[in-house]
Protein 1
Amino acid sequence: MAKQEDLFKNVVSHAKEYGFIFPSSEVYDGLSAVYDYAQNGVELKKNIRDYWWKSMVQMHENIVGIDAAIFMHPTTWKASGHVDAFNDPLIDNKDSKKRYRADVLIEDYAEKLNQKAQKEIEKARARYGEAFNEQEFVSTNTRVVEYLSKKKEILERMARSLETENLADVKALIEELEIADPDTGSKNWTDVRQFNLMFGTKLGASADSAMDLYLRPETAQGIFVNFLNVQKTGRMKVPFGIAQTGKAFRNEIVARQFIFRMREFEQMEMQFFVRPGEEMKYYEYWKETRLKWHLSLGLGKENYRFHDHEKLAHYANAAADIEFNFPFGFKELEGIHSRTDFDLKAHEQHSGKKMQYFDTELNQNYTPYVVETSVGLDRMFLAVFSNSLKEETLEDGSTRTVLRLPSVLAPTKAAVLPLVKKDGLPEVARQIIEDLKWDFNVAYDEKDAVGRRYRRQDALGTPFCITVDHQTLEDQTVTIRHRDSMQQDRVKIEELRGIINKEVSMRNWLMKM
Ligand code: ATP
């Protein structure tokens, strides 16, 4: 565990030191759970967004994008259920004065039971080798059965209590399980209360005519209220999707863990409108398709898992998370939700405007059902960044820090380095940059010995270093060094564009899906 905490600390400090992420308004000691993306972070973030947009919008004939405003008519949030139900159950520890999400405390407890069961399974696997039958073991080993059924029982009881707003029972559960403050060990808890996560603000100049507004807590509603506008003007036929990326705001109760849980963050969402009754087919389709998108980045299949929800949100009839193995364990990265016709019906009711679609094939009007995919851009950033940061020991015993980013996402694709600052080498390096910059983000670096420059680019995740030396002047060749293998090849300058493109083009990466 200590090792994992160290790894996470390294991630946070590397992100700052190398110009990826800074605390917001740091000169005033920062603002809790708000961060700024710096010169390299903004490029990585943009590349992740583009990678998503391309796979969702450009690659699907029946998906189009929009960019709705952050402010929306306040009735939107009444209709969506956010005013009444976008709450988290919070609990305070009376001794430490720390505030927690009651459901998270319970889920963490359940996860510990799960881990105990997994440990038993791994032990047995090692003992029995080839002959090990996991399914049989899980259903017969008394300890594993006990751990897993206890876990299930706890989560089901919590889901029931939250569903029925029985907050006293949520507290009772915490007390029965003897859950302690993770920081101090104290079990002196307050009652559980609901806390609305939306940020409010005002629109208008004078106090009496000002209108209460909310900063949107999700981008999805901007899609729902535009559903018919897009369908009609784009002549879209069900099934079709509307995609959007943009900021969302939540007054999170517990906002630790760096950019994993922020108060201002960015979502990449797609709402897919389908015929009623066909939603489960598309729900399964999008679960699988979204997982493939994640896997195409090559961060390791073992780092992803599905988590099917026990407790469904008020609008859903099925929901699953794609969880990622973050430095602090498996946590939600993306949600896939079958939202039924809840949102469109609610907006129809609150606005008095019809939100129905006429299906010419069926010759029938209906309110489409919706399957949503929703991934946090910042969480995606954290997944990619933390998974890529490696400390490596090289053959000669020295170490290097390397950010093995998927090259398609790397902020800078190549750095061009003149071996020395004289003899016309910088001029040739500049010429190479002039040519490459039309297609790629490239950097020029002439400071320090070339080995130090390589290390600097490794730490920034730059896939290629191109070194211009005296031989270049004679035969128009350079060395190209690969970040991951550190292999160096001598190639012609005119070949550079093709070599880089092959490695970083979205086409080649998305084709792996
Ligand atoms: P959690 O259970 O972690 O609070 P959620 O289930 O409320 O997340 P959704 O409402 O499904 O999240 O939002 C979709 C996605 O938006 C999440 O999978 C996550 O990647 C991202 N997201 C949600 N809240 C935050 C946040 N506070 N900071 C960063 N990303 C977030």
Note: Residues 121 and 134 are 7 Å apart (CA to CA).
Protein 2
Amino acid sequence: MGDKPRFKAFVGLLFLSVSFIQTMGCTRNSSDPSSVVTVYSSRADHLIKPIFDLYQERTGQEVRFLTDSEGPLMERLKAEGANSPADLFLTVDAGNLWKAAEEGLLRPIQSKKLEQAIPAHLRDPENQWFGLSLRARTILYSPERVSPSDLSTYEALADEAWAGRLCMRTSRKVYNQSLVAALIAHHGQERAEQIVGAWVRNLATEVFPNDTDLIRAIAAGQCDVGIANSYYFGRLLRDQPDFPVRLFWASLENSGTHLNVSGAGVTRHAKNPEGAQALLEWLTEPEAQKAFAELNLEYPIVTEVARDPIVEGWGSFQGDLLNLRSLGELQTQAVQLMDRVQYR
Ligand code: FE
């Protein structure tokens, strides 16, 4: 017990000398939170490290990052509260971005640059999160058993013609919750429920844990069509250019292909909000956009940026113009709807 005050005094002295050293010298001392940008990312290391390295090379800004799944990262942000070292939260799917905003983990920022670079439907109307790359969830099919002329909309996969021929990923994945939310936004609950219920009746097999297994099942003849994000197909093509599956640009009735984003927002308790905003703005520069989209074979959000040849090979599509925030707002309804029709 008696040692405690002395210990405290020692720590105080140490602290003073550390601050002193900081004032003395480096402008970018890494123990000063305002000189570093810290990112919590649910995108995998190999998809973001090259981008942050490039940023550091271009600007000298040190970026630290921590990767995990979005759930644990959001829990962590909540638990850390004002003590969180995170300045920027980066994740995929508007459903997750919306949830982070809804739970008070992000802050609105004013940026003309972001508003100009990112189409309005691909960012939060309250400026708490911004799409950085575009992903399209569309129809994949077997060219041996399906003619592209048989394909049209997501809704048409509810037709009896597809009975026993459809593959779907689990409804637990936010990608499908967002897709069903888009159906609700366009058609209302009742019609959306009819469509999703018919998809479930048309299933050829149990639902899949991920998109890659689903696409492989089409190749293996377990089913003829399925719905997946295009980049998963791109990865398979990168390894095997003659992979026996094709991509069809599905559209929602009276609209376009179902879109989603990966994106980011400045955290509520950012120690370096200016640094986080600067990084966010840089991510919309053509050089960053190209790298960010290409690493995962997604689409740049800035349209004039060139695409990867694999992605280019799929041709162009019209995207749905629904503001992605709706996907979050309708998420609970979508999950309940999928439960009702026993979409596992
Ligand atoms: Fe994914």
Note: Residues 1-29 have pLDDT under 50 and may be disordered.
